[in-house]
Amino acid sequence: MIKIAKISTDAPAELDKAATKELTQEYVERLAKLQDILTAQKKYGLLVIFQGMDGSGKDGATDNVFKECHPNSLRVISFKKPTEEEFAHDFLWRIHKNAPPKGLIHIFNRSQYEDVIIQRVHKWIDEDRVKKRIASINALEELLNYDCNTIICKFMLHISKEQQEVELNQRLTDPEKFWKHNANDWKEREQWDDYMRCYEDVLNQSTIPWTVVPVDQRWYRDYLIAKTLVETLEKLHMEYPPLQK
User: Fold this and answer.
1) CB neighbour list of residue 189: distance below 8 Å, 6 or more residues apart
2) Is residue 137 domain-resident?
3) Residue 97 carries which DSSP code?
4) 77 φ, ψ to 5°?
5) Count of CB atoms situated within 10 Å of the CB of 141
6) 42, 56, 58, 164: which is closest to 108 by C-alpha?
7) Residue 163's domain is classified under what CATH number?
8) Range of 32's domain?
9) 152 to each of 95, 96, 243, how far by Cα in Å?
């Protein structure tokens, strides 16, 4: 049973920052090599899901971890408020059609879990609908996994409330981050405890497990995500396809 309150948002004290950043770069380069093999082999697809509160660093993780990967085999999809067309379908319609085909990596910046967490916090759906949606998400992820060899890596970017305040304030003071400012982020912050409760429930009800990533130190966030992805892909023992004669 995952208890978010018992998981630190800080990097382990024994880790050396400089050494960890060097190791992270090695993982980032290995990830790019594994992406090349994945693309050539076309046996697996990789779906990477980033979920977290505003300011938890979803964009930064994408930039830093995948910076050596080839853009032709990489796609980032950000899920915001559904369009009218998306609202006219079931909540997983827009998710399923953006699942990665074999040979590609798709990164979800927010995901299908938005339709459980946010809507539950605001009580736009009742608890019976929440339960059914979580079951539907588990069923879709299992389908992608067994029917299309989609490897799914899910990361909950775990930020402290104090660090989130720092990040949101930077969007008010740093000209390079003005474009990220959204006054509504501060309103959502007022329901922090409800969000943590809903996140915790999702983490514990998911069939495919999550990696909870402490993100108050961004260098550790990048390290843990890159390490997890590399270790996951290396377990597949992928190989370049032989020469076709």
Assistant:
1) 53, 54, 161, 164, 165, 168
2) yes
3) T
4) -120, 125
5) 21
6) 58
7) 3.40.50.300
8) 4-234
9) 13, 13, 29
How many residues does the structure list for the chain? Answer: 245
Nearest of 83, 81, 77 to residue 95 by alpha carbon: 77
Tens digit of each residue's pLDDT (9 = 90 or more) over 71-94: 999 999 999 888 999 999 999 999
Q: Residue 44 CB: number of other CB atoms within 10 A?
A: 19
Q: Which two tokens stand for residue 56?
A: 């938890």
Asked whether 104 and 39 are in contact (CB, 8 A), the reply is yes
What confidence tens digit (pLDDT) does each residue in 144-188 have?
999 999 999 999 999 999 999 999 999 999 898 999 998 888 988
Alpha carbons within 13 A on the beta-carbon side of 155:
28
Specify the pTM.
0.95
**Do the domain assignments include residue 244?**
no
